Amino acid sequence: MPAARLRRHRRLLALCALSALLHGLVLRWIAAQAPAPATPRAPLADGLVLRLAPAGLAAPAPADAPHAADPRMPTAAPARAADAVPAPDAVASATGAPAQQQQQQQQQQQQAIPLDTGDTAAPAGASAGAIPDGSLPDGSLPAGALPAGGAGASGPADQADPAGPVPGRYRVRMPPPVLLTYARTRQAPAMPDRRLADARIDWRSDGRRYALSVDGVLGRLDSSGASGDAGMLPRRAVERRDGRELVTQFTEDGRVLLPGDGAGAADSLGVLDRATLPLQLAAIGLGEPDQIEHALGRPIEVAVAGTDAVTRMRFAVAGLESVATALGALPAWRLVQQAAPGQARLEVWLAPERGWLPVQLRVTEGGVADTQTLQTLQMLQVPAAPAGDAPGGGAERGAAAGTAGAADRNAQEPVPVDRARRRY
């Protein structure tokens, strides 16, 4: 019996040993199989480090080329792109996580990088193409310098700022026919103020044609032509000086013929004469008040044909002032010409309460200031234009006859200009 019991215990011990051996083999086999998915763990961690280190300098690359750098990225991008990359400690701790979690973290990190890089690249490209304000030069205009439908200029030598309004493209509305009279005074250094003959602006328009007569600080001027949505389109301008008439003609083929030898520049629709300038400024305010009221710091540009040149004129909006007139104190926007030192400077006050009409004008030259201030304002009745008349505008400037008539427009021959008495 003891021998049989001993044999039984031996068999049980052998079975336990065999079972332990089998368990050991199974555990060893499992242990041998477990490192297989963890084998790429070290390269994965290295891959993460290699991806994140140049992230600020490289654009997002395809999966098969994660290290390709984009030389077009700005140099300022690394500082901001680094904010989207985890710290090195976080990368080190991620290497101990399961492979699936590491892959998810890697995908999230790769998605975060291009978002920040794109934000930094956008403003860099925008600033490179920005054009600063106030880059338009003053001076005479080249041929073909003006767009249709405006009072200013834009051309090859007259580049405009794209963040702002293009010079000359203003919304306008013609003022109704009116007769304005002004009290005129002259102020000179070390001299008492002197009262001069009254000034006037006589504006007649039937909606298609206009006739304008000006006598005052601007001189003795007449203008006739077409009027419409584009504003005033002069056909003939006359300046009377020292018993002579200096005639500027705006021909049907789109040219401005100056007095003297008849030389001039292409008109291209939009060039004013000196008589129409104040009323064109009024038409800009009447067409859209914001063009003047919100133009502080941005000049209003118009092109004006004088007796010897076509010149771009800039007017800065100086602000809203109260002007004492015979009709009472009127709030008016003051526009100041940005004239070169030593040249005459024109100032115009436009009153919104009076249809943006000029209630005061002033020309200052050599310390002498001639000022005309509104005395009376009389609205006029002008018969409507015949239905067959074509409105002036577009390429058909010559189709609208001036109120003076075609024969009268060509009656006066241009005469030499007295350059010594050139006004503003």
How would you sum up this structure, described in words?
This protein is of the alpha+beta class and 424 residues long. The chain folds into two domains: 44-120, no CATH class; 139-421, no CATH class. It is built from nine helices and 16 strands. The chain has a 16-stranded mixed β-sheet that branches. Residues 38-98, 108-167 and 390-424 have low confidence and may be disordered. InterPro entries: DUF3108.
Structure annotation, total helices: 9
Radius of gyration, in angstroms, nearest whole number:
41 Å
Assess the beta-strand content as a share of residues.
Answer: 25-35%
Order of helices and strands: HHHHHHEEEEEEEEEEHHEEEEEEH
- SS-based class: alpha+beta
Q: Could you say how many structural domains there are in total?
A: 2
The overall pLDDT average reads 70
The major beta sheet can be summarized as: 16 strands, mixed
Name the overall outline: rod-shaped
- Tell me the total number of β-strands: 16
Helix content: 25-40%
Biased composition (Low complexity): 59-146, 154-168, 397-407
Pfam family, one: DUF3108
Region (Disordered): 59-170, 385-424
Organism: Massilia forsythiae
Summarize the structure.
26% of the residues lie in helices and 30% in strands. It has 9 helices and 16 strands.
Which terms summarize this structure?
16-stranded mixed sheet; disordered C terminus; single chain; alpha+beta; DUF3108 domain-containing protein; rod-shaped; 2 domains; 424 residues; DUF3108; 9 helices; 16 strands
